[in-house]
Design a protein that fits this description.
Oligomer: single chain
Shape: globular
Helix content: 40-55%
Order of helices and strands: EHEHHEEHEHEEH
Distance between the termini: 14 Å
Strand content: 15-25%
Strand order of the largest sheet: 3-2-1-4-5-6-7
Mean pLDDT: 97
């Protein structure tokens, strides 16, 4: 399966960076935050980063425009229903991640891959809150995401080969 649309949960430092990079690479990207205030703060962080890039000659104005066109925000989990890949980037708390993965399992299409940006929590424990353990994987982006061209792929034993290969192709893109 090729990833066509990406969802990102959390628009803080890591989530906004992940959303920005996905949108810059041409993926229609939907970032979800718990409220409008945090969502707007994260989207503004992205606009500021891109604007600074334009000023320094690192980003072309048309690239900034295309990135922002690929990027949308929401506060509703249901809006992620048609995403092929959803990357969770919230606080490092197992119960919060399990709650989010359970919610995503309910609202996302059956073929969607669920990924976590966690650097320290067991992905198997997170995935256990879903009915799609084989479609859960770790995609650990390095900070600052728009500058560091590195994604660590963490593959629990329960993750299928197809999920791994799709996640790898996505990360390479």
């Amino acid at each position: 399966m090729a990833i066509q649309k990406v969802g990102v949960i959390g628009c803080g430092l890591m989530g906004s960076g992940i959303a920005q990079v996905c949108a810059q690479k041409g993926f229609p990207t939907l970032v979800r935050e718990v409220n409008e205030t945090l969502l707007n703060k994260g989207l503004e962080r992205i606009r500021t980063f891109l604007s600074e890039g334009v000023k320094r000659g690192k980003v072309k104005p048309e690239e900034m425009s295309a990135t922002l066109q690929n990027l949308k925000g929401t506060t509703k989990a249901e809006d992620l229903a048609d995403c092929d890949l959803v990357i969770e980037a919230v606080v490092e708390n197992l119960e919060e991640k399990r709650r989010i993965f359970s919610e995503l399992d309910r609202v996302c299409k059956p073929t969607a891959i669920l990924a976590s940006n966690t650097s320290s929590i067991s992905l198997t424990k997170i995935a256990a809150s879903t009915r799609r353990m084989g479609q859960c994987i770790g995609l650990h982006f390095m900070n600052p995401v728009p500058i560091m061209k590195l994604v660590e792929i963490v593959r629990p034993e329960v993750t299928t080969e197809a999920t791994y290969q799709t996640a790898r192709s996505f990360a390479e893109s």
